[in-house]
Design a protein that fits this description.
CATH class of the largest domain: Mainly Alpha
Strand content: 5-15%
Number of helices: 8
Structural class: alpha+beta
Bound molecules: glutathione
Largest sheet: 4 strands, mixed
CATH topology of the largest domain: Glutathione S-transferase Yfyf (Class Pi), Chain A, domain 2
Order of helices and strands: EHEEEHHHHHHH
Shape: globular
Radius of gyration: 17 Å
Distance between the termini: 37 Å
CATH architecture of the largest domain: Up-down Bundle
């Protein structure tokens, strides 16, 4: 068995969770380290960063692709080019559209509020909610044509999107909206039963 990899970043980060999920699925041992201990920090000041026996990689999608390629058997990336094209588009959509709206603008305003006296800025939440709903609808519709965001099998796109979706379900404010997304709910319930998701997608421990 190859040496475990080091993931720099806290376990509450959705992107750190994505990398953890890929490690779990690929059977790769890993340890989490505080980013301050990283001798080769992310050039753009983000997390996660991976260190695999001295190979330092940043950007979650690149990290997850590397994790798949270092394994004897590829299970995170489809071999069929049509499924692969589908997965790649959802990896990009996860990073460019879902994360900024679901996590940066909605979730972080709830858990790390930027309003006056540390209060939640309700105007910011009200403004972003229609976009959250629009993007959830897009995800819900996509899953009506293929079972997973990575095509016929769960893969990197699913492990990028699941931590975001999990945080939306946990937010407790948009249950009525989520109830309308019946296909997404089915997908979420199925994915949550995977041992990787049961282990990684737990209630987050936020910094005090
Ligand atoms: N494109 C990066 C995004 C990583 C990212 O946004 N990470 C967040 C945590 S989930 C972060 O570093 N936030 C701290 C900051 O923006 O200063 C990736 O895919 O890894």
């Amino acid at each position: 068995m190859r040496n475990p990899v080091t993931i720099y970043g806290p376990a509450f980060s959705n992107y750190v969770r994505s990398v953890m999920l890929c490690c779990e699925e690929a059977g790769i041992g890993y340890q989490l380290e505080h980013p301050a201990k990283n001798s080769a920090p992310h050039p753009f000041g983000k997390i996660p960063v991976l260190n695999d026996a001295g190979l330092v990689v940043f950007e979650s999608a690149a990290i997850c692709r590397h994790l798949d390629r270092r394994s004897a058997v590829s299970i995170l990336i489809p071999t069929d080019i049509r499924q692969l094209a589908w997965m790649d588009q959802w990896i990009s959509a996860a990073n460019c559209y879902f994360d900024p709206v679901f996590i940066r603008r909605y979730l972080l305003e709830l858990v790390m509020p930027k309003g006056e006296n540390g209060q939640i800025n309700e105007d910011a939440i009200t403004t972003v909610l229609p976009e959250v709903e629009k993007y959830l609808n897009i995800a819900n519709t996509a899953l009506q044509t293929r079972p997973y965001f990575s095509g016929r099998q769960p893969g990197i796109a699913d492990y990028l999107i699941m931590p975001m979706i999990d945080y939306l379900y946990r937010s407790g404010r948009i249950d009525v909206m989520l109830e309308k997304m019946t296909r997404l709910a089915e997908y979420y319930a199925e994915m949550k039963q995977r041992p990787s998701c049961e282990k990684v997608l737990v209630a987050p421990q936020m910094p005090g």
